[in-house]
Amino acid sequence: MTLYDIPAPAKINLFLHVVGRRDDGYHLLQTLFRFVDLRDTLHIETRADGRIARSTELPGVPPDQDLVVRAARALQAATGTALGAQIAVDKRIPAGGGLGGGSSDAASTLIALNRLWKTGLTRQALMRLALPLGADVPVFVFGQSAFAQGVGEQLAAVALRPRAYLIVQPQAAVPTAGVFAAPELTRDTKLVKIADFSDLLETKAVDKARKPGAPGDGCAGPAGTLPAFFGRNDLEPVVFGRYPPVRQAARWLADQGVAVRMSGSGACLFGEFAGLPEALFAQSEIAAKMRLAQSKSQTQGSCPIAQVFACDGLDEHPLRHWIDK
Questions:
Q1: Which among 85, 45, 54, 70 is positioned nearest to 137, based on CA atoms?
Q2: DSSP states of 2-69 as a string?
Q3: Residues with catalytic roles
Q4: Which of 94, 147, 199, 273 is the most buried (most CB within 10 A)?
Q5: DSSP summary character for residue 314
Q6: Is the entire prediction scored with pTM above 0.85?
Q7: Are 130 and 106 in contact (CB under 8 A)?
Q8: Which sign does the torsion angle of CA 27, 30, 35, 36 carry?
Q9: To which H or E segment does residue 102 belong?
Q10: pLDDT 10s digit of each residue in the chain, 325 long?
Q11: From CA 60, how far away is CA 161, in angstroms rounded?
Q12: 317, exposed or middle or buried, with CB in 10 Å at 0-12, 13-18, 19+?
């Protein structure tokens, strides 16, 4: 049996605070996860010989280190199934971008194989298998926008306002481990509660009080006006300091009237818009300016941006209902 076109959506961190560090070196976080409709696509075929194999190469990543292979083997070991899988991944989410592409692929692999192999694990059981694969993997199995604490495994579902996003990939990729190991990283941000960021949640009072494009909506406001995000991403100053192309991309976007925040450990940046038409318009404007910047220079990389995507925010993971409970 084969499942085609299995979605693996990206995530963004609407804020990311580092609030402490455990004795084992893991960082304690508070963050707000949202899925966005920028996705990788998986195709998985059941094998009768028990082998787990991938059909597509991931440059620089041997099969044994590939998260989709590791996820499949984890489910296989936990359930004792004699079945295997052939896995192909069509990548669209930028690697090294802080968008959780590898984590999302791993979670979709767990969910899809739980269905294909008929292993019948619950959501909580799959989330326990997901955590050793990476701190971001459980939220994709959880399947909803979530306020996360601990190392990312303590998840509380939240309903967020409908929004669209501009996702920008700078001319850089950022390895996560180096950012968290940086001595200049802030590790003592004050704890917040859900009530502190209630203006991000889906409430009639907030939506009636604000009009699209008002400061605080994440859209470009009047000339010279930049909207505010809640909190901050504590990893952003480290990345901006160590990876100039990311800082340059953020400044370039600000010059175009688009305020952005870095997602996760970077390098990708995002801006928030009231709806997809506004995000698509901003995408077309920025793409035109990227082409103009390149045409005016003989030097490759004169524009600090590699790619730009417009996409809707998702209320839940597309595979959420593939798990019974």
A1: 70
A2: EEEEEEEEEEEEEEEEEEEE-TTSPEEEEEEEEEEEEEEEEEEEEESS--EEESS-BTTB-GGG-HHH
A3: 11, 136
A4: 273
A5: E
A6: yes
A7: yes
A8: negative
A9: helix 101-116
A10: 899 999 999 999 999 999 999 998 899 999 999 999 999 999 999 999 999 999 988 888 899 999 999 999 999 999 999 999 999 999 999 998 999 999 999 999 999 999 999 999 999 999 999 999 999 999 999 999 999 999 988 999 999 999 999 999 999 999 999 999 999 999 999 999 999 999 999 874 444 334 433 333 444 443 333 467 999 999 999 999 999 999 999 999 998 889 999 999 999 999 999 999 999 999 999 999 888 877 776 555 568 999 999 999 999 999 999 998 7
A11: 38
A12: buried
Tell the residue number behind the tokens 């991938």, with chain if given: 54
DSSP, res 132: G
Amino acid occupying residue 32: L
DSSP 324: -
> Which residue is it, tokens 């800082």?
247
